[in-house]
What does this fold into?
Amino acid sequence: MTRNLFDLNGRVVLAAGANSGIGLGFLMGCARQGADVVVWGRRADRNEEALEKLQAAGAGKVHHECVDVADERAVIEAFESTVDTMGRVDCLFANAGFSQKAPSFPDMTSEMWHSLLNVNLHGAFYTLREASRHMRSRAENGDPGGSIVVCGSLSMFYGLPGMEHYAGAKGALGAMVKGMAVELGQYDIRVNMIAPGFIMTEMTGQSDQAQKIIEHFSSITPLGRPGNPEDIEGPAAYLASDASRFHTGDILVVDGGRIVKGG
It folds into this structure.
């Protein structure tokens, strides 16, 4: 039987920071194509809730790990445990992180700077390194291939006051994606980034302020609305599957046209 181009049956997809929001949206897109999925998050109860949703969406085997990606040893042990349980990892989505705004750059404290980079940049580095080690090892043993995806941000392209630490982390990851794509291509490992626009999650809330934010982003987005985690599902299935087998070193912007509108 011919394999569907987006078919992920038998593929293992791991996402860090995936018990809600964009990370869960990425895994949902893969689950709908039959992938085995792994959730990394800091709260076991939220991880279990995410697994239930993923199973309902069509995931095969499911697994979760409680891990703080800012802890290097925890990442190493979680990746080892994931491989022991699932047998392999075919696709990684490095998504764990948080957003934080300082009053201004001169008022940004060292604590704010380091606490954000510890998760958004250093935690991503630990996660990406373990995935690349695993995929390279598989390739050297005759099983090449893999897809590594990093979550970026439009802050890489715009100047956002008080967000220099967040944008700096995302910009650094964007540069890393290009280097990794060149270095790991010999093992048939693809490395790309998704740069989403404003995505509504449960953290957006229902307050009057939240509604004003939604209205603002709707007004500056050509498609006339903010994004939802479901909008990440299609790009996820594409990047995790053979459909993207010749696509690497790229930043895939998923923003409803925001970046091309400008202003």
In short: The beta strands are 12-16, 36-41, 62-66, 91-94, 146-151, 189-196, 251-254. The two ends are 50 Å apart (CA to CA). The longest strand covers residues 189-196.
